[in-house]
Amino acid sequence: MKLDTRKSVLLTKSLGGWKPIAAGVTTATKPQQQKQKHVQSIKAIPIPNGQVGKAEVECGEENIEVVFLTEEIFQGRVFVVGHANDTNCVSREVGRKSTSIIVRKDQCGVVTIRSQNPPGLFVNVKIMISFHDNFITKIDRGYEISCFYMEAEKTVTFPISVSPNTLQPLTELAEMPRCRYEVVDPVTQNPVSVVSVGSKLLHKWICDSTAPNLWCMTVHSCFVEDGSGTEFVILNDEGCAIDRYLLDNLEYGPGLLQAQKEAHAFKFADRVVVNFQCSIRLDIRDGECKIPKCPDLSKQRPRISKRSHDEIVRTQRQHKAVDFRQQGFSELDVRATKIDVLDPQIGFGAGNEEPLPSRIGLQGTRLKDCIPVETMILPASLALTTIVTLLMTVTYLLISHSRRSGKLFPGES
């Protein structure tokens, strides 16, 4: 059953008790006029503050929030009547010209009443705004708030195939989305295959579907592999980052079945190849898609966890064993194109000033057994010097021999 918030009814406290007020309107009633007989004039100093305008009420799915505006900076408290000593039912938001309280529907004596006509639920709670820390004073106000949650009409249909003898249910599922994982240049949006350490990369997860509104997508269980079986987890099974210096928490969008995150290229020691692989969970959409709630890693030290081969095989088997019709979701493994990550500090790759497509001219090649250029300078210089010396020696000997024979060249007469 889905409940839609339609309206809130507020009541204000006066000398005659709790008095209902028009829905969504908050006003203060004047005390009843009393006959005054021989009443002495009394001078008192009221608290120099008070409420401004109407109280704003937000009837949420799990709680009720009431916001008050005040004439001066608020220094009191807001609490549920009858629960002033319960910390869950008291709010002390001070220091501003406004204050508020959030009350859960299952706490603080909140009363829920079912209504048949119209169908729905009434949720009632009494709130007091007090401008003193401990006592109720003249300027304080009390409200009885009533939120009505109307029951939404929901029609469920089952397509069936009719034959003369039997009625057989026919269930038709939409075509499963096709998902892919890409690592691209954030400027050109072109997939990369050779980059330098520290280059900016954009990780993208995209699922193409004829009915994108039918699905919710969650990227999780990502790992990076060096081409020889060594793997490290960089995104856990809940879809949260482990080391933000390698890959931070993902951003879902801009499309319905899309997620992305910028990161810097990194590599394994003594290895060039870097492979990325992730799992994508596809759920049938029921309301808003839930985005993973991940902790803030801004103050976390770098850490990644190594993933064993047995764990990888076990996880893949679990994904393959999932029956979509029984579980209501599907798991897909997606792998990005292999990337060669070069380190300019040890002679692999060029500087970062050039764009990625022209930075390295060895696209698609495996760089194995490479010899740094710096180590070849001295041997090349010695070889060149030796060759020049030999040529000069041979030339000198030929000239000397010609002079002794009286001929400059062997062919002269």
From TrEMBL:
Which top-rank group of organisms is this from?
Eukaryota
Which Pfam families is this protein grouped with?
CUT_C, CUT_N
Q: Which residues cross the membrane?
A: 376-399
| One Gene Ontology MF term | structural constituent of cuticle
Q: Which UniProt keywords apply?
A: Cell membrane, Cuticle, Membrane, Signal, Transmembrane, Transmembrane helix
- Cellular-component GO terms for this entry: plasma membrane
Entry annotated with the keyword Nucleotide-binding = no
Q: Where is the ZP domain?
A: 58-301
> According to its record, how does it sit in the membrane?
Single-pass type I membrane protein
Protein name, as recorded: Cuticlin-1
Q: Which organism does this sequence originate in?
A: Ditylenchus destructor
